[in-house]
Write a structure and sequence with these properties.
With 283 residues, this protein is an all-alpha fold. It is built from ten helices and no strands. The longest helix has 44 residues, at 198-241.
Length: 283
């Protein structure tokens, strides 16, 4: 695979920022190919094509992290090593998300409606309006947290069954978040379209910044949670494939993935608190 040859986990851990551009490229290629070949189903096909490009690097990462479990006995050092993978995978996710945002903003509206059809439907279905009532807010918080835990369970399960399966859940979320940010930016830019000048130019970049900030406040810890969960599922999957469950190190592997899942749940709690109680105040 041409795209697979661009990077491997060891290189990615040394230069994690490069994964941002790789992610942007993967998603852009997926969008262009889906529009060219499967235009009517582009909203789903672009996700699958992006996932196909990401699978080799993600699967090899799971193998690398599982091998660290077999070599490193100190849990603090092991978590530090896992965090290297989490960092470059987050750069990959951010690159994919920004690619979706960019294409949403700059594609013609007719094309955007086709490319992000399923994503728009998903946004409308999960668009919860949070009121000022504390009891209603807590109810929404509980609903969001439970929904995110369900997504985490799917990400972990997909990683366990398919090795790199969590990348599908994460790429789908990237496309939905990208569509939400893109729609926010596009809607607000239209307010300034009637006037031209430096002040309006400044307003454009203000809208972009606000759009990115609005969703990244809770989106980043949420995605971190899914990456930790996906990493846990991927590690146990590789351990079983390699029959390391017969090894004395397997108990250490189980303890390691338990810690990763606890970390992921902590990030989900933080993300839900930000989404319900902080984001509505700021925006």
């Amino acid at each position: 695979m041409v795209l697979e040859s661009l990077l491997n986990p060891l290189k990615a851990e040394r230069r994690p920022w490069e994964m941002f551009f790789i992610g942007f490229l993967y998603a852009s290629v997926g969008i262009l190919l889906s529009l060219w070949i499967f235009k009517d189903q582009a909203s789903l096909i672009m996700v699958f094509l992006t996932v196909m490009a990401c699978v080799p690097i993600v699967y090899n990462t799971m193998k690398l992290e599982e091998s660290k479990d077999m070599k490193i006995s100190k849990e603090k050092l092991l978590l530090k090593e896992h965090n290297k993978a989490i960092v470059f995978l987050m750069f990959l996710f951010l690159g994919i998300t920004l690619s979706f945002v960019t294409w949403y903003v700059f594609l013609p509206s007719e094309t955007t409606n086709i490319v992000f059809d399923k994503q728009t439907s998903t946004i409308q279905a999960i668009n919860n309006k949070v009121s000022g009532n504390a009891f209603i807010q807590f109810s929404v918080f509980t609903k969001i947290l439970l929904n995110n835990i369900k997504v985490l369970a799917f990400a972990t399960l997909f990683a366990f069954i398919y090795g790199a399966g969590a990348i599908f859940i994460l790429t789908w979320n990237a496309s939905v978040i990208g569509a939400a940010i893109g729609n926010f930016i596009r809607s607000n830019i239209s307010e300034y379209a009637s006037a031209i000048g430096l002040s309006q130019f400044s307003n454009y970049f203000s809208v972009v910044s606000i759009g990115l900030l609005k969703y990244s406040l809770h989106g980043i810890p949420e995605m971190l949670a899914y990456f930790y969960g996906g990493l846990a599922g991927g590690i146990i999957s590789i351990a079983i494939i390699k029959e390391h469950y017969k090894s004395e190190k397997f108990a250490h592997i189980v303890f390691d993935i338990s810690e990763l899942l606890i970390i992921s749940l902590s990030f989900l709690l933080i993300a839900a608190l930000i989404e319900v109680y902080i984001t509505p105040i700021l925006f």
